[in-house]
Automatic annotation (TrEMBL):
Family to which this protein belongs: Belongs to the bHLH protein family.
Protein name in UniProt: BHLH domain-containing protein
Gene3D superfamilies: Helix-loop-helix DNA-binding domain (4.10.280.10)
Gene Ontology terms, MF aspect: protein dimerization activity
Keywords: Growth regulation, Transcription, Transcription regulation
Annotated BHLH domain residues: 1-51
Species of origin: Musa balbisiana (Banana)
Entry-linked InterPro entries: bHLH_dom, HLH_DNA-bd_sf, PRE
GO terms of biological process kind: regulation of DNA-templated transcription; regulation of growth
């Protein structure tokens, strides 16, 4: 009986897939068309990988900028304050 309670209903899966679809830029641009859950999960993984690459790139660029800054400058203080928030 407990395994029955732990199962996710098809309705719940459809609701979650629909929510996920609304979060992905590619599927929002595509319109109201419904993608398969497998395709949507694959697109989600690709999107997360892309976001990770963007974060890594921005981190590298920020590190390069910080390395060339005078640590007592107003710009350096601004960067530090942004990183704290």
């Amino acid at each position: 009986m407990s395994s029955r309670r732990s199962r996710v209903s098809e309705e719940e899966i459809n609701r979650l897939v629909s929510k996920l679809q609304s979060l992905l830029p590619e599927t929002r641009q595509r319109g109201a068309g419904r993608a398969s859950a497998a395709k949507l999960l694959k697109e989600t993984c690709n999107y997360i990988r892309s976001l990770n690459r963007d974060v890594d790139d921005l981190s590298d660029r920020l590190s390069a900028i910080i390395a060339t800054m005078d640590s007592s400058s107003a710009e350096a203080e601004m960067v530090r304050s942004l990183l704290r928030s």
